[in-house]
Structure formats: structure tokens, C-alpha cells
Amino acid sequence: MEMKSMKPFLFLLLLLQLLINPLHLITAQSPDFGIYACRNNKNFTSTTYQQTLESALNSLPGNVAIHGGFHHSSAGNTTATALCRGDISPKLCEDCVKNSIPSLRRTCHNQTEAAVWYADCMVRYSDRKILGVLDNWTSGNLSNTAVVADVSEFNKALSDLTTRLKAEAGGGDSVRKFASGNVTWGPDSLTIYGVTQCSPDLSRDQCDRCINGTIIGIHDCCSGRVGARVFTPNCFLRYSNEHFLDDGGAPPISAPSPPSSGQKRDSSKIIPIIVSVACVSVALIAIGFWFLVKKTKPKNNATNKETGNAFSSLLMTENQKHSANLAEVGSVDMEMGSVQSLQFDLATIEAATKNFFVENKIGEGGFGPVYKGVLANGMEIAVKRLSKSSGQGSQEFINEVILMAKLQHRNLVRLLGFCLDEDEKLLIYEYVSNKSLDYFLFDRDRRGHLNWPQRYKIIGGIARGMLYLHEDSRLRIIHRDLKVSNILLDHDMNAKVSDFGLARIVGVDQIDVNTNRIVGTYGYMAPEYAMHGHFSVKSDVFAFGVVVLEIITGRKSTRFYDQDKPEDLPHFAWKKWTQGTSMEELMDPTLVETCCEDEVMRCINIGLLCVQEDVDARPHMASVLNLLNNYSITLPSPTTPPRYLPKTPTSYFSSGVSVLRSTDVSSITDVAPR
Predict the structure, then answer these.
(1) Do 118 and 218 belong together in one domain?
(2) How many domains does one find in the chain?
(3) For residues 41, 43, 49 and 52, what is the CA-based torsion angle, rounded to 10 degrees?
């Protein structure tokens, strides 16, 4: 009886101890079981190594959340790293790392290299260099034993999902390389959820290769299974038919600093203080912002108001014309709020371009000249100045502003802002230093600067940019004017898709669209669009296929024909493909010394798949990217490209002019040497 009477007291005592010092909970096990890997090549017994390892590991939990979910620490020759899943909260991240370290030490006692994987985090350590190194010393997988009925259809949907996730994760920065998403499949529209992540110390290429390995691992171990995980020391891939993503969680961010030892942790006092400070801070910020707006407001209020009203009027007109499309974007007020925040003052642009000085002109697009400018803060910009007589009036201008303001991807040219003042319509872009792809590709002297690895990288970059437009952005966007002159190259020769003046927003679930207004460039236009005004994402896929063939051949589709026998580039490539002479007669001769024959042949095959006449037979961009990166997939044989060229070559090719003013000259192309 006496012992029973003590139990409530002991329980209260334990509860009180936990409330006073909750850090005692750090040794609690995670509800998700860990997967361990211990490298047995070397054991250690020295006290010194144990101390350095302890020091390296102990710094991880307190720093991982405040460093974006990834942290590394070194002591002596030992390096330890912790990586949290990108969608979980800082608290879950810190707890997972805390809980994993003691169990890792126990499981891999006296080992110089070890790793543990939980659902929310990964921790590893080694006595060798591991940062920036793509490791393959261990890997593992877990899977659900249940198998779907239609394995082929399931694997196709899963392949599309993993390809998109890989592209997004690889495009991350030095803080986070993470992607999550889902895809529906089957007649019942079942959902597959997926997530993939690399440690951000890897380069993009290393991340791509790492995730490629996990995709192959999924194919080898878990084909058709409803859920699986594959993990390596540098990355992991997980998918499931059950929702496991932490949609409510934010990326790991800096946590508040803990109170010093001399402070009393009285939440009843601290919380009101925090709330009060927050309210006062918000009020001060609001007052300061109001004064800032008043101070920077242009003196010519009438002119500014007139400009704003003119822009509002144009936007309203555009909204009326494309109400169905803009319904996908949001209300007019939302558009005005996002667009007007990008508005530049005309005087600022005139100063940056030295009043559009002729020597600052770097290109001549179909809608007007392009100038290089330098802002007061030193930032280089490219300014597209729409000519008053250009085909791109208010409709295309508003279209491009709205579209580009919402698109953020490393393979798309970034819109910095716009200027609408009296008769001037200006678009301000990031300055891309290496000009356009056609500047190199179709010039005898310059094409040699593009070796095969660079061209292969450019093809992949274009594919990633187009995939983002079609499937990964908040909107579904059809470019309608994809061509080599609209591909710009940055200082690392990364491809950036540009010129969205003819692009169209379509519904996320909308398959195709009809129009009576045919726009684009002959030679890149899909036949169903050129002849019937019927366009879809597959129209862009057709143009992508033509671009791929141009990159491989170094020859221009819209200038490619025989006077006696009209023939476009896709048909010429198809003929050489069926004759088995692709490498000899199709590939640009300047690539002989640098090419990889398997890659070239694979790209020719993909290009021909994209330019097939049957719309349904053309692959989606997600499949294209998967075919480019996954050599375990056997490519199907392409069918004959369409024949829809006019009988008279001169009527088709004489000027290279596109329908409705889109010319072979892009918005920032045909750049004169400087």
C-alpha cells in the first residue's frame, strides 16, 4: 500500500523534472526507425579520435535548423554532416538530428565512417574528405511490398514525377537542393507523392548524377511497388501512394536564440513582451514605409497618375480579351499589385542606357531594338525598347510582363521590370553576357566555340526550362515561339529561354487550345498549329525537336532546303537516320573530336521523336528530360515527320519571316560584336 501511494508522487516528480529540463528528452528514439551503415575499413580506439568525433557531432543539432537544414562541422580530421528533409519544420529537424546521433554512435561504435537515415533527416561522419564529394560507398532501400496492377503505367507516371523532381532539386542553391511534388495516374486518378533531395555541398552535375542513381535504384529494387525509398550518402528519393509530405511545415529557418542562464524562463512574462515588441515593430515599419513612399513619389503626379491609368486600362483590356486565361492567374487587382511593383522610371532607364545611345545597342528583335544598360548600383541590364510600329502592341507587352514576372527558373531569362511612359514601352531583363545560341551555332567562325559537352548541356537546359513552363510553374504556359535565337547563354554557357511576347497561359487541366491568330516562326511551328491554329504543349515539343536537330547539325531549319527538292531539317535528319548515316552526314563536323557518339545518337532520336506528325506520339517534356538523363530507358523508334511545306521554296524561306511579325531575330539576338 505504501508503494502504491508513492506512485502518483513519483509521476509528478518525473513530470516536474521534464518541465524544468526538457533537454533530457534528447535521447528519445525517433518514431521512424533508422537505417545505419558502418564502414569497417578502419577501427579506432584512441581517445583523441573519440573526442574529435564527439565534438564534430555535438555541434550539429544546435546549428542544422538555423543553417537551412544542412550543417557540417569538423574537428581534427573528422567531418560530420546533418541534412534535414526540406519540407519539415525547424523543430522536427533539430529533434531528428538530436535523436539520431546517440543511436548512430552506439550502432557504429569505433568506426571511422558511418551514416544513419531517418524519414526526416540524415547524419553521417568520416575521417576523410566528404564535402563536395559524390560518395557511393553505401546505399540502401526500403519499399512497400504491395504492387500495383498496371506496373507499366505506374512506372511511367513515376518516371515523369522523378524527372521533374530531379530537375528542381538539381537547380537549387548552396543552401538547399530539395524538391517535392505529386502526380496522378490510372483511370481512378490515384496520386503518387514524391520527394528528393541532395546535400547542398554538391554541384548541380553531382546532384543530377546522385539522383539518377536513386532513380535507377528504384527501378531495380521496387518496380511497381506503391511506396519506396532509396538513399545514398549524398541524396535520397522517396515516393508513396500515401501522403507523407509536411505541407504545413516551413523550410528550416533560424530559431530564436535561447535565453541566457541568468534569465528566468517565465513564458507568462516573455510572451506578452514579444507580442508587444512585434506590434510596435510593425507599426514603426508601416510608418517608415509611408514616409519612404511619400519621399520617393515623383514630383509630376499628373504624369505618373496618367501613366498608371494608361497601364491599368491596358491591363483591363487584356483581361477582357483573355478572361479565361487570367482566371488561372488571379484577379486584376492581384495582377496590378505584382506588376506595378516592377515598374521603372523612364529617367532611370535613360540614364542606364545613356539615353539609348547607339553604341549600347546589342540587338534588334522583331519588336524593336535591345540596349545594354548599367543601373546606378552597377547592375547590368538588357532593355527591350518596343518600336511604335512593332507588331507587339499593348497585348503582347502586357502578356510578357505578366508572364515573366511570375516565372523564376535558372533556365529562363529573368524579367527585372518594365517601363510604360507616354509612347515608350520598355522591358528590363537580366543581362545575359554570351548572347544568343544562334550567334554561335550558325556562324562558321564561332560554331567551333560550342563543343559537344556544351551543346549537350544546352539541350538539357532548354528541356528543363520548357518543363518548368509546362508543368512545374504555378501556371501552364505554352511558349509558341521556341527557336535557337530565343535561347540566350550566360557566362557559363547555361541556356536561358527568352522572349515570351507570344506565350499563352492555359488552364492546368487544359490539354489544347484553338486560335485564329497564328503566331510563331515557320520551320519551328507544328503542322497542326501552322495549318489549323491548334496548339498545345506538344506544339512546343515539336519546336524543341527542331532546336535539338539544329544544335546537333549546326544548320538552320528555316534555311535548309534543296532548290530542286524542298526539304526541311526534320525530313533531312529522318532520311539520314533511316539510312544509318546520321553521324557521318548529320552531325556538325566541328563536333567530331569532342562528341560522345551514344549521346549524339540519343539526342537525334529524341529530336525525331519530338517532330513526329502524330501529336500524341510526341513525348511530354518530362519524358524528354527523363530520356536525356536515364540511359537505362530504351528509346522508341520515331515515325516520319510531317510534310506541310509549300511547293515554292522562296515563298517559305526567302525572308525567314514568321507569321504576325515574329521573325528569326529574337528579342535579344543577332548581337553585333563588341
Answers:
(1) no
(2) 4
(3) 50
The domain boundary, picked from 430, 452, 472, lies at: 430
106 & 216 share domain? no
For residue 463, give the nearest of 598, 635, 624, 631 by alpha carbon: 624
Considering the domain boundaries, does residue 63 fall inside one?
yes
User: 537-553 vs 621-629: helix axis angle to the nearest 10?
Assistant: 40
All three cell numbers of 22: 526538457
Measure the CA–CA gap between 73 and 64, rounded to whole angstroms. 10
User: Strand order in 380-385's β-sheet?
Assistant: 361-365, 368-374, 380-385, 424-430, 415-421
**Annotation marks residue 345 as catalytic:** no
- Stated pTM of the model: 0.52
Is 559 domain-assigned? yes
User: Please, what is the end-to-end C-alpha distance for the chain in angstroms?
Assistant: 96
457 vs 656, higher pLDDT:
457
- Are 74 and 156 contacting, i.e. CB atoms less than 8 angstroms apart? no
Residues 6+ apart with CB under 8 A from 337: none
Domain with 636 in it: what CATH number?
A: 1.10.510.10
Contacts of the segment 200-203: beta carbons below 8 A, 24+ positions apart:
200/68, 200/70, 200/172, 200/173, 200/174, 200/175, 200/176, 201/70, 201/72, 201/81, 201/131, 201/132, 201/174, 202/132, 202/134, 202/177, 202/234, 202/235, 203/132
- 481, 499, 540, 568: the catalytic one is 481
What are 307-363's pLDDT values in tens digits?
444 444 444 343 344 333 433 333 333 344 455 667 888 999 999 999 999 999 988
Task: Report whether 347 contacts 337 (CB < 8 A).
Answer: no
What distance separates the 2 farthest-apart alpha carbons in the chain? 110
219 and 94 fall within a common domain: no
Give the Å distances, CA to CA, from 7 to 12, 17, 514: 9, 15, 77
Question: How much is the pLDDT for 281?
Answer: 61
- Per-residue pLDDT tens for 489-525? 998 899 999 887 777 776 544 445 555 556 678 789 8
Same domain, 174 and 235: yes
CATH of the domain at 367: 3.30.200.20
* pLDDT tens-place string over residues 556-612: 886 654 445 557 899 889 999 999 988 888 999 999 999 999 999 999 999 999 999
To 5 degrees, how large is the angle CA 632–CA 638–CA 642?
Answer: 150
Pairing of strands 140-143, 227-231: antiparallel
Domain extent, residue 356, equals 301-430
